[in-house]
Each structure stands twice: as structure tokens, then as C-alpha cells.
Design goal:
By secondary structure, the protein is an all-beta fold. It is about 0% helix and about 35% strand. The protein is built from no helices and 42 strands.
Length: about 400
């Protein structure tokens, strides 16, 4: 540059000084964008440029090699040099500063800052890798017996057993019924339970058992090699549990005829002299007739021939001999077993109060001896006919 009095002065470029700009200098630092200045004996000075910059003074952006750290991508900008697009969990000019907001850990992983060491992701079961983005079936993340399958695009999936659903098979589910046809499913705080029907046990009612015996009506339970049980039914019964009656062969004994009622019951029409569910009991075997009565078997029932003084279907009712009013002359009848007794009015006696008693000076209270004796009831006695005539006053 020219001076007012005809001289000149050199305006040196960064990194040079002296009258003719022939002496290199690092003060002030001519290197831009964080480059470091180094003086060279023969070559003046050089700038050691940081990643992403090149040129004499580190003023030219450069994405090769990539200056962005931790997986950041480098983009050249016309006016701003370059920028780094940082991956989740990193920030700063060169993606060198760890950051947990927003959370870079995927699939439910938790982010932890580690000071100078950046950050780490604590991954849940089934995931691994720096950001928990790589599916992993070891150890198995699927619960309650679920099987883990790796997927190309979706990470992993759990194939849940019956009764369980959700990403990791952790949610109990009774639809469809995991107990099959062998139990009833119910939900509880601990998941689900199967209330197994007779003959089955285990978590999902898949294990056969003969204790307690599931076979009804005397059937015998046998465990099978094919993971099942079989009931050997007694005569007259069929079905898985021996609960279905069959009249072939005849269930009714002693000549009884069998009739099916629905799918679970039957009736027997018993032969003469027999009774009971299967016609095994004789009508008179228990001697139902009381008080000395005799049992007479009939076709489908019996008849009690009662002893004297008793009546009713089972000879339990005492015959009332007073119903025929056997006591005469106002006598009171007292019923006894197979007999009666009369309490006669004054002046009368006998089993039926038919005999009169007379009042006599000589024979007080005795039977009238003559028609002139005075009876107790103011009647005259006819000794011959034992008939009392109206009394005469004299």
C-alpha cells in the first residue's frame, strides 16, 4: 500500500509479518476453524486443520475423512462450511457431546450419561447393540413359555402359548380358552388358572390323572400311553366318563325292563315282587308291615295284612273300637288295642252298660230281685227280662 509521502508499507497475509512479509508468525493464529499453527524453518508455517477442514488456513470444508463422530453424517454448506447431522444421543459441532434428551435408546432402553465416556443404553430383554436396536433372542425375552423369533424388518416377535398375549407374552388371556375342553379358564392377580375337569391336571389341563377317579358309576380308570385316560365302564354304562346309560345289556335285574330317559338316566319297570333302582330289592325283604302285620308281595308293590286291632298301609294305625258306640245308657267308651272298655253311668253295669242296678233296702246297689224294689235311677226292674220300667210312686 502507498504512503502519503511516496513510500509504501506491506499489508501482510495472516501468518506473515516484517517489512516485506517475509517472516512467518503464528501470532495471531492464522489458522481458522480451530486449526493449529506450526512454524517451519524452511517453509514458513503450516496449519494443522481439525477434521472437516482443509486448505492453507483450514478455511475449506471437507467431509473426507468424515469429521463427524459417533456416527454423525457430514454435509457441506455453501455459506457455513459444513455441518454434522448427529445420531440420537449426541450433539455438538462434531457430535462429540453425549445427550440423553431425547432418549437415543430404542425399544425401551434407558439412557445413562457416562461423563467423558459418552453414554450407554441399558437395553431390555430381547435387544442389544449401542442403541438397543439389534434384536436378540438370547436370553429369551418371551415370558410364560413363549418362543422368540428374529424378524428381518420388525426386530423380534414372541409366539405366545395359549392363555398369554402381549409383546413379551406377559398378559394373561382366556380367549381362546387355553384350558381347551378339559378345564375352565379364570384370570387372577398372578395370571390365569385352569380349573380342570375330572381326569385332568397340570397348568393347562393336559396331563391325565386317575386320582380322583373320573369314571362314574363304578367305571375303572386306566392311563394310556397316548397321554390320555380311558374308562372301562360297568355293564349298562358307556361314554368317556361312564355317565351315559345304555339298556344293552339290560341294566334292570330280576326280569325288570329298562327304559332310557334322556342321555344321563334310565328307569326300570321291575317284575313282580321286586323294587329298587335296578330291581335288586324284594318288596317284603325289609318287612315294612308293623305291629305283627304280614307282608304280601304284589306285582309292583306289596300289601300288609294287619293283625287284629291295627290298620293302615303299614299297620301303624290303631283300630278305634269306639266308633260303633258300643257303650249303652250314656256309658263312656275307652279305646284299647283290639278292645274297648265302657265306663258306665250310675245304675248300669256290664261290658256294654246294659245291666241295670237297683236301690234296695236289703240289696243296695245289687240287681233288682223283685219288681217292688226301688232302682237307683227311679225305675222298676223286670228281673226276668232285665228291663227297667218307669218307677211308680206310692
Amino acid at each position: 500500500m502507498s504512503l502519503p509521502h511516496g513510500g509504501f508499507k506491506c499489508s501482510c497475509l495472516p501468518g506473515w509479518t516484517d517489512t516485506h512479509c517475509t517472516r512467518p508468525t503464528c501470532s495471531p493464529n492464522p489458522c481458522r476453524n480451530g486449526g493449529s499453527c506450526l512454524l517451519q524453518r524452511n517453509n514458513g508455517l503450516i496449519c494443522n486443520c481439525p477434521p472437516g477442514w482443509t486448505g492453507t488456513y483450514c478455511s475449506q470444508p471437507n467431509c473426507s475423512p468424515n469429521p463427524c463422530r459417533n456416527g454423525g453424517s457430514c454435509l457441506l454448506q455453501r455459506s457455513n462450511g459444513l455441518i454434522c447431522n448427529c445420531p440420537p444421543g449426541w450433539t455438538g459441532t462434531y457430535c462429540s457431546q453425549p445427550n440423553c434428551s431425547p432418549n437415543p435408546c430404542r425399544n425401551g432402553g434407558s439412557c445413562l450419561l457416562q461423563g467423558n465416556n459418552g453414554l450407554i443404553c441399558n437395553c431390555p430383554q430381547g435387544w442389544t447393540g449401542t442403541y438397543c436396536s439389534q434384536p436378540n433372542c438370547s436370553p429369551n425375552p418371551c415370558r410364560n413359555g413363549g418362543s422368540c423369533l428374529l424378524q428381518r424388518n420388525n426386530g423380534l416377535i414372541c409366539n405366545c402359548p395359549p392363555g398369554w398375549t402381549g409383546t413379551y407374552c406377559s398378559q394373561p388371556n382366556c380367549s381362546p380358552n387355553p384350558c381347551g375342553t378339559r378345564g375352565a379358564c379364570s384370570l387372577s392377580n398372578n395370571g390365569l388358572i385352569c380349573n380342570c375337569t375330572a381326569g385332568w391336571m397340570g397348568l393347562y389341563c393336559t396331563q391325565p390323572t386317575c386320582s380322583p377317579n373320573p369314571c362314574r358309576n363304578g367305571g375303572l380308570c386306566n392311563l394310556q400311553v397316548s397321554n390320555n385316560f380311558m374308562c372301562s365302564c360297568l355293564s349298562g354304562w358307556t361314554g368317556t366318563y361312564c355317565s351315559q346309560p345304555t339298556c344293552i345289556p339290560n341294566l334292570c335285574t330280576n326280569g325288570g325292563s329298562c327304559t332310557l330317559e334322556g342321555s344321563t338316566n334310565f328307569t326300570c319297570k321291575c317284575g313282580p315282587g321286586w323294587t329298587g333302582k335296578r330291581c335288586t330289592q324284594r318288596h317284603c325283604i325289609s318287612n315294612p308291615c308293623m305291629n305283627g302285620g304280614s307282608c304280601i308281595p304284589l306285582d309292583n308293590s306289596f300289601h300288609c295284612a294287619c293283625a287284629p286291632g291295627w290298620t293302615g298301609p303299614f299297620c301303624l294305625m290303631d283300630v278305634d273300637e269306639c266308633t260303633s258306640t258300643p257303650c249303652l245308657r250314656g256309658g263312656i267308651c275307652i279305646d284299647n288295642v283290639n278292645s274297648y272298655m265302657c265306663n258306665c253311668q250310675s245304675g248300669w253295669s256290664g261290658s256294654n252298660c246294659a245291666t241295670g242296678k237297683c236301690l234296695s233296702m236289703l240289696h243296695y246297689g245289687s240287681e233288682c230281685m223283685t219288681t217292688r224294689e226301688r232302682p237307683l235311677n227311679l225305675q222298676l226292674c223286670d228281673k226276668l227280662s232285665n228291663y227297667s220300667k218307669p218307677a211308680y210312686t206310692y
